[in-house]
Amino acid sequence: MRRCNEEVAGLLQEYADLIAITGGDAFKVRVYEKAARSVGGYGRDIDGMDAAELRAIPNVGESIAAKIEEYLRTGSIHRLEELRTKIPAGVRMLTTIPTLGPKKAMLLYQERGIDSIEKLEDAIRAGDLRGLHGFGPKTEENLLHGIEVMRKTGSRVHIGTAMAVAEEIVPALSAVPGCERCAYAGSLRRMKDTIGDVDVLATAKDPAALMAAFTTLPYVTEVIAHGDTKSSVRTTAGLQVDLRVVPRDSWGAALQYFTGSKAHNIRTREIAVHRKLKLSEYGVFDVATGEKITSADEAEVYGMLGLPWIEPTLREDTGEIEAALAGQLPKVVTLADIRGDLHTHTDLTDGLAPLEEMIEAAAARGYAYYAVTDHAPNLFMQRMTDEKALAQRERLRRLGAARHGMTLLHGCELNICPEGEVDWPPEFLAGFDLCVASVHSHFTQPPEEMTRRLIRACENPYVKIIGHPTARIIGRREPVDADWTRVFDACVRTGTALEIDSFPDRLDLPSDLVRRAADMGVLFSIDSDAHAVPHLDVMRYGVGTAQRGWLTPDRVINTWPLDRLREFLRPG
Ligand code: DGT
Ligand code: CA
Ligand code: ZN
Ligand code: CA
Question: What predicted TM-score, i.e. pTM, was given to this entire model?
Fold first, then answer.
């Protein structure tokens, strides 16, 4: 179920695109784009707001507020409807092709009636664009290439794949003689759940040597571009990696620029302009003298803008600039705050490692507590039984209440059935230290049923954590459809935490929903959902997702000391 904010954000973005296509004012386009982002990222639900409340949203002025109000009242925006009758939706799609701008898209539509990517492709191949102003053979070739690239690279990779590549490349380049600094930036540094390409930055005494090393790395399958300051390659994982070598005294500014996001950069550049500075990927410049101001690190760059350093995970222009200016940036949770893992598996069900191995590995991480939560009987292929669960508990207790100072908790991962019931009756659940409950079947229930199902699970006094709440698998399974506002309400009312499952193809709850839930007072548990020893390391992706949701440690139950956690886990 899409929230009103997302709906309106989509409409404002569409309005901006249509103004651009019809040759409207570029400034106006920007204004609507900014408003779209602000509304989409706004913490409160805009449904039912009046014009005055709407104007309190950053970047929403009088005329945009009026349009939103019109939509909330009537279900449509008259001006947008007018533009829609002039421009078919497919023409808007055309502008997503690299190298095809709004003006050319409009020309293709007006002169040749082309209103889809398929039609454009056909027209080029049939030679139908001959004689059309601005469409020579070179342009046609670029367009066909753009369409092909779009189809191929339309698939972004999840953060685990991109991080693995970056963590091979950065140390390899750092080891090249003359390399002074090397780091990854872009969406990967911002810990987005999917990554388009990996952006690596470096400073080096001998840039050419570094470029040569980069383009000949063993897992490079294609060199897309090879230059003195920028090269791009494709790796065996199919992922594009860009390397940019920047001057030493640009490091801070370059890292800031290439970390993005683009929306965040637009804001920082505006602030620079107000301070008579120019901020670009090349550095910070004094506008009056044209002089470059050295920026050794990012903190200095933000400092020149009168801002504190901002966590990369917050840099999406969803309120972090305002918070920074007001001195109210959240102190978001970090990996060091995590005291334990509350959702893990062993080879008793679908895990790979025996209980003792998982526990040893967890203890080595310095955790204060650790919960073993194998699957419950209703997930039939896991063959769990009451006896097996009890025997596992015995085995755990025999290991001692604590292992290397780490308290062991015996838990389970229940299955939430379509009506919201779970595997075991209350008497049996009472024997566990902790019950996680998750949706593992019937993913496509209508929203009303799914909402009731999740709320029912929260209302179970023994269920303390809802595991991977949307059940999405990135790139493979869509999130379940529920009225999240009502689910979040139920979590607060029943004292049930939502999980951020840290598995890189899950990252569930996703960060936008995390932020909404946190605003409503929901608590979280950031878990690995480990099925093997190396999986304990995925915790950092969950922490990144939590940061993107602006979570502070006090909202995360597994940053709490054991006593406080136990209090929370008491049934009721
Ligand atoms: P991705 O690769 O799609 O997952 O997302 P990003 O954020 O890594 O984007 P990318 O790789 O296109 O560019 C890296 C950063 O460079 C981006 O986050 C901000 C900066 N950047 C790129 N293009 C522009 C631009 O046109 N304007 C501004 N202000 N910054 C840009
Ligand atoms: Ca990128
Ligand atoms: Zn599960
Ligand atoms: Ca509960």
Answer: 0.77
